[in-house]
Amino acid sequence: MPITPHQAGHDHEHGHAHRASGRVLIFALALTLGFAMVELLAGWRAGSLALLADAGHMVTDGAALGLSALAAWLASLPPSRRHSYGLGKAELLAALVNALAMLAVVFGIGAEAWQRLQSPASIDGALVGIVAMLGLLVNLVVAWMLSRGEQSLNVRGALLHVMGDVLGSVAAIIAGAVIYFTGWTPIDPLLSLLIGGLILASSVRLLKEALHGVLDGVPPHIDLDELGRELAGIPGVKDIHDLHVWPIGAERMALSAHVRIVDLASWPRILGALTEIAQHEGIAHVTFQAETSGTEEQVIRFTPR
Fold first, then answer.
1. Is residue 95 over pLDDT 60?
2. Is the pLDDT of residue 138 over 90?
3. Which residue, of 9, 118, 170, 225, is most buried by count of CB atoms within 10 Å of its CB?
4. In sequence order, what are the residues at sequence separation of 6 or more whose Cβ sits closer than 8 angstroms to the Cβ of residue 126?
5. CB atoms closer than 10 angstroms to residue 201
6. Residues 6+ apart with CB under 8 A from 84
7. Which residues have CB under 8 Å from 103's CB, separation 6+?
8. Which domains, ranges and CATH numbers included, belong to the chain?
């Protein structure tokens, strides 16, 4: 019969962490959207692609932060009859959407930069530099706020957007200075392309991690073979099979396994040892099923060394 240790205290702590990160995300959202409007107006008036790209990026950041805040709130809700593990995977979905949105932003910046290189436009370098410096301050404040909170995949996705804005602001400052002092306008789209390339690399990495989690992949820091051998090494365990580890949230994992044992009377002691090993790996929800005999056709078995 399956025995699953109760994890209410752990879920309660996660609920507090998700609510705290949600508040930070909402405040960051207000700052980001507020300054995005300033940059859009200034970029349109100055004729700067770098500034418009940064403003557009900040608007997508606002959507990303809003989505992340919603996901953090959903993840903080307790489990229900319809969602017995809760809604922690909303954070993985938010990270996935954020990564895809960043790829779309990079593509848009690249296309516009190419057009600007073909047909250079007049740019007000002084206005670009001043607004970009203000934008850099806002982005650094938001990045600092996010970096001090819970570092879930969801928050990391939002932070990626903001760090892209930091780079965009730096590029706009440089572009504004070069244009003001030299009048060389191609620097504006060239720096936009450079920043787009840097954002692309981070977006692809986040996309891979989010997809892996959404598809119930084994968390990257868990070595399934090593974990199986460690569990099978407990005295009284003959072997471990049907071992599964998967994410049930951005930073929460579950484990299930069948355990073939020598003596059923020793199961309470073995269960305690198995649970301790799993929790040491950060796995909050564990389910072990004891067996006194097992079928030999199981594909993957972990036996004591």
1. yes
2. no
3. 170
4. 176, 180
5. 10
6. none
7. 200, 203, 204, 207
8. 8-214 (1.20.1510.10), 224-302 (3.30.70.1350)
The pTM of the full predicted model, rounded to 2 decimals, is 0.68
Q: Could you tell me what percentage of the chain is helix, strand and coil, using 3-state DSSP and rounding each to the nearest 5?
A: 65, 10, 25
Tokens of 181: 């002092």
Residue 218 C-alpha from the chain's centroid: 16
CA distances from 66 to 29, 154, 247, 256, 278 (A): 6, 11, 23, 34, 34
H helix intervals, 77-223:
89-118, 125-147, 153-182, 187-214
Under 8 Å between Cβ of 139 and 236 = no
The two tokens of residue 269 are: 């002691």
Q: If pLDDT is split at 50, 70 and 90, which confidence band does 4 have?
A: very low
The pLDDT value given to residue 13: 44
Q: Please give the single-letter amino acid code of residue 301.
A: R
Burial (CB count within 10 angstroms: exposed 0-12, middle 13-18, buried 19+), residue 6: exposed
What is the model's pLDDT at position 273?
A: 95
Classified as helix, coil or strand, 296 is coil
Question: Are residues 116 and 49 in contact, defined by beta-carbon separation less than 8 angstroms?
Answer: yes
Instruction: State residue 20's pLDDT score.
Output: 53
Token pair listed for 200: 């692309």
- Looking at residue 6, its pLDDT comes to 43
Q: Which of 59-68, 92-101, 176-185, 224-233 has the highest mean pLDDT?
A: 224-233
Nearest to 197 by CA among 141, 78, 113, 87: 113
Q: What gap in Å lies between CA 295 and CA 305, rounded to an integer?
A: 20
